[in-house]
Design brief:
The chain folds into 2 domains: 4-142, NAD(P)-binding Rossmann-like Domain (Rossmann fold), CATH 3.40.50.720; 145-303, Lactate dehydrogenase/glycoside hydrolase, family 4, C-terminal (L-2-Hydroxyisocaproate Dehydrogenase, Chain A, domain 2, Alpha-Beta Complex). The chain has 10 helices and 14 strands. It has helices spanning 12-23, 38-48, 50-53, 92-109, 122-133, 145-160, 199-210, 212-220, 227-241, 286-303; strands spanning 4-8, 28-32, 59-62, 73-76, 114-117, 140-142, 167-168, 171-172, 180-181, 187-188, 191-192, 246-255, 261-272, 275-279. The strands form 4 sheets. It has a 6-stranded parallel β-sheet with strand order 3-2-1-4-5-6, sandwiched between helices. A 3-stranded antiparallel β-sheet has the order 7-10-11, covered by helices on one side. The longest helix is centred in the N-terminal third of the chain and has 18 residues, at 92-109. The radius of gyration is 19 Å and the shape is globular. Bound molecules: 1,4,5,6-tetrahydronicotinamide adenine dinucleotide (TXD). 1,4,5,6-tetrahydronicotinamide adenine dinucleotide binds next to α1 and α4. Residues 8-14, 32-35, 77-82, 91, 95, 98, 102, 118-120, 122, 143-144, 147, 175, 223-226, 229 line the site of 1,4,5,6-tetrahydronicotinamide adenine dinucleotide.
Amino acid sequence: MRKKITVIGAGHVGEITAFKIAEKELGDVVLLDVVEDMPIGKGLDMREGGPVGQYDSAIMGTNSYEDTANSDIVVITAGKPRTPGMSRDELLDANVQIVKPVTEEVVKHSPNAMLLVVTNPLDAMAYLAYKVSGFPKNRVFGMAGILDTTRFRAFISMELNVSVENIQALVLGGHGDTMVPIARYTTVAGIPLTHFLGQDKIDAIVERTRKGGGEIVKYLKTGSAYYAPSLAVAEMVESIVKDKKKILPCAAYLEGEYGIKDLYFGVPIKLGAGGVEEIIEIDLTDEEKEMLKSSETAVRTVVDLIKL
Ligand code: TXD
């Protein structure tokens, strides 16, 4: 039986996510948006690409939640993106008004689904979806860390002129400018990053990673990044559908791990058929712990503004 995967929001991230999922044949895809007819056109276009793109996934676009019934995975991308000069946190009020009713509809139609939240401010929206859905914590998680990590990896590969595939890295913390790229756990073909780069260079790459989202918004002017984010979501969906049990940095609900309680926060998790199957706690230096603490404070300040 093929999996049924729904993507809510057929904007930039939603449409490319749906397309990648279909192309990789991870399941049949339903793409939903509030804009009348638009997702139907996009879905049809993707379906018609099947013969030449060599994928058999059935893709459909819709304006109705009836078509999403009994989905195995629901990806929530509905919401406003940033524009230049804006922080992710400034999207809170507008996106609470979107993600809350979307989650309620999803729960009504797909009570057993996994919820993969993408809308910003990410950690706060994952928390909202968790609380509103009433789903167990293993079935609600957010995408951010893979995106932040792929940016960090890309910058390192650009600097060293080596394959992106050689670079293993980890970015922890909230999805904001306080995120914590852990250079100490970053390797190039298993060799510590410090063998290749001095501290100044590493610091500059860490800083560019933290501001990576904003750098793209500045160029796009009318919205935020979508290619790398969509690929990151597709990697998560693949790990669940194929039960790959990949260890990936994702926003997960913490109940004491890393000394943090009742918060969605970016940590390494094992992602498989059971959703969040394990949260991996790694040893951190005092300096890293301090950076994580200020990231926690930044996320908690935003979450506290949500009126559930
Ligand atoms: O790392 C991450 N988590 C992120 C998050 C990386 C990239 C983008 N990130 C956030 O995803 C971004 O800040 C936004 O909050 C969302 C979606 O970004 P996208 O770039 O796809 O925005 P678009 O192109 O404006 O698309 C949003 C779509 C648009 O088609 C709206 O009509 C639709 O969302 N929308 C809705 N769909 C369904 N239901 C409701 N209520 C709804 N409201 C708006």
